[in-house]
Design brief:
With 403 residues, the protein is α/β, with parallel strands linked by helices. The protein is built from 16 helices and 17 strands. Strands 5-6-4-1-7-8 form a six-stranded parallel β-sheet, with helices on both faces. A six-stranded parallel β-sheet has the order 11-10-9-15-16-17, sandwiched between helices. The protein has a three-stranded antiparallel β-sheet with strand order 13-12-14.
Length: 403
């Protein structure tokens, strides 16, 4: 049984305040459609079909960023996914928003303005403090219940994610329920065979936290990206150093070198580390074996094919595989080989599989990999990482406590 109320516990025909995460790329002022709209449309459509009056709260970026824009375009995109009209009001919780909410009929859908345009939204506060804010108090009085479906911001203690469950009956939406179930499965489920985690991205601290939290659950950590280089540096190899004027690798190594060294000395058999690397040479992809590197002179942008060929059999022999981050710069198809090959190997195997971590899910769309080939594809970044590292998610905890 779930640890919180779900949509199955809702009686029909209520006025609902529903928190989604529609944060999307913005190109030249145009909001881009993406798989988040597709995921959340199921919750919105289900609620509207049950004759609820559905009022959506969501955010886009943060104040000061170029992509901090209105949700008017988001409402239009959402309408195309739910295949019914979606209204929009350029107000978060003022009189204009209240008037629009009060005129809704059963089955209607309304999107409020970018919730981060409300002064009370962003400060990290306790649920009790947020519940007393003008933002929460002025909206709550208009609703019968609150639904949080925004798992990808469940690690944020913002007014719209933790304040409302203290003043309204609270429920988890379909995305929230599925994300929480699958993203905690590596820690909570028992598997009869080997469990493997593919770890990439650009933060060694994240990988360290995952390995420390899941060391007893995961048999193999296959590393790429910056963590792959930094673990090799901890072994004494001439990689994991910055070139070209950056200091990302050196700074991270300075902050984590003691832990990295301890891991490679005491738990080396758990880690698959890159044996070759890909880099750009005269506009093309080139590869170099670790043993041939005397001094790093080029940024490494992907794992090489020898590494890929050593990682794939590990995946094929695993009962469960989890992915946290890409092992290369997959946005450039010259350096997508590693990420795509490993994800395709997971898709073709019979293992239990969860794909997640920042933009990793975008690989599927970009390279035509069927999402149905995996047990779950997470659209969360920070919340997915928190689940892997055993860190509590404030928005989930408040649903458990007050739902």
């Amino acid at each position: 049984m779930p640890e919180y109320n779900t949509l199955d516990d809702l009686e029909p025909a209520k006025r609902l305040l529903v928190r989604l995460d529609l944060n999307s790329p913005v190109t030249d002022g145009t909001v881009q459609d993406n798989n988040r709209f597709d995921r959340y449309s199921e919750t919105v459509r289900t609620l509207a079909d049950d004759e609820h009056r559905v009022v959506v709260m969501a955010h886009q970026s943060r104040p000061g960023n170029d992509d901090f824009v209105s949700l008017e375009q988001h409402a239009e995109i959402l309408a195309s996914h739910v295949d019914r009209p979606v209204q929009f009001v350029a107000d978060t919780h003022g009189e204009e928003a209240k008037a629009a909410i009060e005129t809704l009929e059963p089955g209607d859908i309304l999107v409020l303005e970018n919730t981060r345009m409300a002064d009370d939204e962003l400060p990290e506060k306790s649920p009790e403090e947020h519940a007393e804010s003008e933002f929460v108090q002025s909206l709550a009085e208009l609703f019968d219940a609150y639904v949080n479906d925004a798992y990808s911001v469940a690690h944020r203690a913002h007014a719209s994610t933790v304040g409302f469950p203290l003043v309204l009956p609270a429920y988890a939406g379909l995305v929230m329920e599925r994300e929480y179930e699958y993203n905690t499965s590596v820690a909570q489920r028992e598997f009869d065979g080997p469990v493997t985690m593919v770890c990439g991205g650009n933060k060694s601290k994240d990988v360290i936290n995952v390995t420390n939290n899941l060391g007893e659950k995961v048999d193999n950590f296959l590393l790429g990206g910056l963590p792959g280089e930094l673990f090799r540096r901890a072994e004494g190899s001439p990689v994991g150093y910055d070139v070209g004027g950056t200091d990302l690798l050196d700074e991270q190594f300075k902050a984590t070198s003691e832990t990295l060294t301890s891991l490679v000395e005491n738990r080396r058999d758990e880690f698959g580390l890159p044996s070759d690397f890909a880099y750009e040479s005269n506009g093309d992809r080139a590869e170099i074996a670790l043993e041939e590197i005397e001094e790093k002179t080029e940024p490494y942008l992907d794992i090489g094919h020898d590494t890929i060929n050593s990682y794939v059999p590990v995946i094929e022999e695993s009962e469960a595989v989890f992915v946290k981050g890409a092992v290369g710069v997959f946005e450039d198809d010259r350096f997508a080989d590693g990420t795509v090959a490993l994800i395709e190997a997971i898709a073709q195997s019979d293992c239990f599989s969860v794909i997640g971590g920042g933009d990793t899910a975008r690989v599927l769309d970009m390279y035509g990999i069927d999402e149905e080939s995996f047990d779950h594809v997470s659209i969360a970044g920070g919340a997915y990482l928190n689940a892997l590292t055993g860190t509590e998610l404030p928005a989930v905890e408040v649903l458990k406590a007050h739902g």
